[in-house]
Design goal:
globular, binds uridine-5'-diphosphate, Rossmann fold, binds uridine-diphosphate-N-acetylglucosamine, alpha/beta, 2 domains
């Protein structure tokens, strides 16, 4: 079986690291090995947004680097489509494997489906029900053309069912495999870089970790100003905040004099994006995590750290129901109030349910790929 894996953005490298490693392990004793080729669209390209993950997580080097880079949605997705189609026609894979909900996901799904190449979607079925998010459009469309929908949660399976997937007339299969990010958190926690705290002059459980990069948080300067004001207040009143800043956010702040001034005078500490092994250390030892990231919300839970989400909704609703995550919106006062409420809770005393599988999502996904390939051969 030949599989083409499409990645392009930071969280996809982390998810693909798990599945690629599992494929390599399976191949050690397989009569019919899986031949995997990785295509990197080039959506993320800075060393600390791309290469660092391939190096630290030992992800095989991509067979193709499409170097599409940044641009508007249409420009970026369009260029990916053109280049992916060319590579897919040359490689003629049995299946295309896509991850998550970025423009690279959508381009991979569309290019493959139009060439009649079956698509397997890792992280299928997530919904925020907010159609203003580019990610929501990407996921709905990717799921619609996928043959194998590999869901991370029970909720994701339910979301697909409510959209009529699987549909008896289309041969799509839906499976709850568990979440590959849980596998990653377990596997890489052993390798995490514990000197990161010392390097950043931080004490365990005496700081708050923040990340912000979503379009709805950053594209409107007023929203970004509000989030920065909230982080400033929290770091003055409660714990120091360390904020590995996504280049999107850094660029938007740099181009706005008012936000640049706010950054220069704020109490939080903005640093460059960090690698996954440092990130695991930063998350594990945080007193609290404040974020708009999808992946970081779950990682807080994996490392038993409480989280406040600076968004108006989340795809990971089970975290909110279990009390590990609080949706605070984008207003500074509400974010500060949510942080204060979460700081009152002792995470050691909070039940820690099995929401994302047993850390074997990578194996479940590889099993499904093999099963699917055998069913096609019949
Ligand atoms: C993308 C995904 C988002 C995901 C995030 C993960 C889409 C529509 N969005 O958002 O779902 O949560 O990745 O991090 O696919 N930039 C650099 N260097 C880089 C990469 C980006 O400077 O290596 C800057 C550029 O100014 C670029 C901006 O960041 O225009 C945004 O990058 P882009 O990939 O378009 O979207 P993200 O915000 O990263
Ligand atoms: N991450 C990282 N370094 C950072 C910030 C995030 O390694 O400086 C990791 C984080 O641990 C998680 C993933 O990147 O695994 C989440 O990516 P991001 O927040 O960019 O995207 P999202 O999950 O929201 O799509």
């Amino acid at each position: 079986m030949k599989v083409l894996t499409i990645v392009g953005a930071r969280p996809q490298f982390i998810k693909a690291a798990v599945v690629s490693r599992t494929i390599a392990e399976y191949n050690l004793n397989a009569c019919e090995p899986i031949q995997e080729q990785i295509i990197h669209t080039g959506q993320h390209y800075d060393q600390n947004m791309s290469d660092i993950f391939f190096d630290e997580m030992q992800i095989p080097r991509p067979h193709y680097q499409l170097a599409v880079g940044s641009g508007s949605h249409a420009l970026q997705t369009g260029q990916m489509l053109i280049k992916l189609e060319e590579a897919m026609m040359l490689e003629n894979p049995d299946m295309v494997l896509i991850y998550g909900d970025t423009n690279s996901t959508l381009a991979g799904a569309l290019a493959a489906a139009k060439l009649h190449i079956p698509v397997a979607h890792v992280e299928a079925g997530l919904r925020s029900f907010n159609h203003n998010m580019p990610e929501e459009i990407n996921r709905i469309l990717a799921d619609r053309v996928s043959s194998l929908l590999l869901c991370p949660t029970v909720e994701a399976v339910k979301n697909l069912a409510s959209e009529g997937i699987p549909c008896p007339r289309l041969k799509a299969k839906v499976v709850n495999t568990g979440d590959v990010m849980n596998d990653a958190a377990i596997f890489y926690a052993k390798l995490s870089n514990s000197s990161w705290l010392e390097q950043n002059k931080l004490l365990p459980h005496q700081y708050i970790l923040a990340t912000i990069h979503r379009a709805e948080s950053t594209d409107n300067p007023e929203n970004l100003k509000n989030l920065m004001a909230a982080l400033d207040m929290i770091s003055r009143k409660h714990y120091p905040i360390v904020w590995p800043m996504h280049p999107r956010t850094r660029n938007l702040i740099s181009s706005n004099p008012e936000l640049s001034k706010l950054l220069a005078t704020s109490a939080f500490k903005a640093i460059e994006p960090i690698g996954y092994l440092d990130m695991v250390c930063a998350e594990k030892h945080a007193r609290l995590i404040v974020t708009d990231s999808g992946g970081v919300q779950k990682e807080a839970f994996f490392h038993k750290v409480l989280c406040v989400t600076m968004r108006t909704e989340t795809e990971w609703v089970e975290l909110v129901e279990a009390g590990w995550n609080m949706i605070a919106g984008l207003e500074p006062e509400k974010i500060v109030a949510a942080v204060e409420q979460m700081l009152m809770i002792d995470p050691q005393k909070l039940p820690w349910p099995d929401l994302y599988g047993l850390g074997n999502a990578g194996q479940n996904i590889v099993k499904e790929l093999i099963k699917w390939s055998r069913e096609q051969a019949r």
